[in-house]
Please model this.
Amino acid sequence: MADPNRQLAMVIDLNKCMGCQTCTVACKVRNTNDKGMDHQWWMKVTTMPGRGYPKDWEQMGGGYDADGNVMLGKKPEADDYGGEAMEFNYEEVIYGRQGQEVHLAPRVKPSWGPNWEEDVGSGEWPNAYFFYLPRLCNGCNKPSCAGACPHDAISKRKQDGIIAIDQRTCETCSSQDCMSGCPYKEIYYNPVTLSAQKCDGCVDRVEDGVAPACVRGCPGRAMWVDYLDNEAGTVHKAVKQYEVALPLHPEFGTEPNVFYVPPIGPPSYNEDGTLNEDEPRVPIEYLEKLFGPRVHDALTTLRAEMAKRRREPKEESELTDALVAKRYPELLGELGNDPGGIEEVRA
Model:
């Protein structure tokens, strides 16, 4: 059993995420494939800059004010998720015998959805840019969802820091203040169970020493999971030692435990078509808006460590080697057990 008061954390390298949505599908199939959960995407990968999922979540409010009081923002409504769950014309396409005249499509055109703005990007030609941002429950040290809950149905586990919802207690609540209080809008309401639901960190896997499905499913080796106090692990090195992995929107005051290595991006072009190595394509002002002022130092450290491996003769870089992750077990930290057989037992 894990020691008490330990904290599981994730590091996601936005320089390696390729927007393949494997983590999204792994989570959806395993965790939110039930009644009332069609709109629930506990993991989703958004193209940034973008309005995200639910739509415009960054402007909905929540979190804590300067005095440490929980602020209730907007509760996401059905339209923010795209309205009714999409139903597709499978029978017509597969059995309708209409050849090329019919294609697979939703029966009712949706108004929004996860990764709605895929690869849209921003900027002006020839300096257009975008990057991918996986999002899930942040396992915050100060979860405002728990602070907003009037029935104490949301708690933080001491053995791993995972935020858990007592479904039975939650059923008695009609306020849904937890949705308003979470500034990341990672709480979903299930109209069938009449309770709030969210990413649980694949808690049953964690208890068996197995990494969450999103981490094990990432083909780009862009995600790490581990306990923050494991000084030999990449999570600790990226977050605590080198400080290149940062929380998303730290100004919300919840102290997240999902950390992002900010995207360096390609250099920009000058008007004559030559490269301007001193001007990154992704505006630093936008990255500062997402990750706070510490992003400047994080990018400086990343570039300095990468330069060590590029010059001749090459220099050692512990950070670069850790982020490359040549050995797959390095991604899993203390959760390196194989899930084979465990899923069958749980089922």
The domain at 8-88+110-346 is CATH 3.30.70.20 (Alpha-Beta Plaits). The chain is about 25% helix and 15% strand. The first strand starts at residue 8 and ends at 13. The chain has a mean pLDDT of 93.
